[in-house]
Specification:
Helix 2 crosses helix 3 (about 180-195). This protein has about 210 residues and is an alpha+beta fold. It has a 4-stranded antiparallel sheet, covered by helices on one side. Strands 4-5-6 form a 3-stranded antiparallel sheet, with no helix packed on it. It has a two-stranded antiparallel sheet with strand order 1-8. It is elongated. A hairpin with an 8-residue loop joins strand 5 and strand 6 (about 155). It has 3 helices and 9 strands; from the N terminus they run αββαββββββαβ. The chain starts with a helix and ends with a strand.
Length: about 210
């Protein structure tokens, strides 16, 4: 009878310990926004808000009157070139981020939905004219824009960009060797340092 009582007490103790662990794990998940850090994510989508590097924008053609377009140094000549530069730099930064996280990159496909805008350098203008979108250049990125005929006062210029990786999978968890969270942090750093992208808020990692 004594042995049976000990077994019952042991089982009760084990149940209490297990319950405490589950509560702790649930709280930890809630602290990270409800995502499961151990979840296997295949074909992830990295969603971000950024002020694009100047080279990801292009300057408009000369006006009908023949006046030269005002452009920023480093801007692309047209939308095709701007898009190509964005695609190339996003892919290079993501590949480097994955390699740094020791993730295999063979056969991965990296795509994005970024679309460039034509931005005009206001130069010495303090008042806008109808038509152009004027840009504010800071640290190699276009961070503000203004459209109108009044005094030029910039509003934040942010592009919502999704970067998708196909043919790759791993967990979110930061402590693991292969993690999308680590890739995310590496990508953000490389985009900022190598290409002057300016990010607002965190990059979110979701399933495709």
């Amino acid at each position: 009878m004594g042995a049976s009582l000990q077994q019952i007490l042991l089982r009760m103790f084990e149940s209490l310990v297990l319950s405490s662990l589950l509560v702790g794990l649930t709280s930890a998940c809630g602290a990270t926004g409800g995502t499961n850090d151990y979840e296997i994510v295949q074909d992830p989508v990295f969603s971000m808000d950024l002020s694009p590097p100047v080279g990801w924008t292009y300057f408009p053609p000369p006006t009908a009157a023949g006046t030269a377009a005002m452009f920023f140094v480093g801007q692309s000549n047209d939308t095709v070139t701007a898009k190509m530069r964005a695609d190339t730099e996003i892919q290079a930064a993501m590949i480097e981020a994955m390699v740094a996280a020791q993730l295999p990159v063979y056969n991965v496909q990296i795509t994005n939905n970024y679309q460039p805008d034509d931005i005009t350098n206001p130069a010495a203008l303090t008042t806008g004219v109808a038509g152009p979108t004027y840009g504010k250049l800071e640290g190699g990125a276009i961070t503000g824009i203004y459209t109108g005929t009044g005094m030029i006062i910039y509003t934040p210029y942010l592009k919502m960009v999704d970067v998708t990786i196909r043919n790759a999978q791993t967990t979110r968890y930061i402590g693991e060797k292969y993690t999308w969270n680590l890739v995310k942090n590496n990508f953000l750093q490389k985009m900022a340092l190598n290409y002057n992208a300016k990010f607002t808020g965190d990059i979110k990692v979701n399933r495709f």
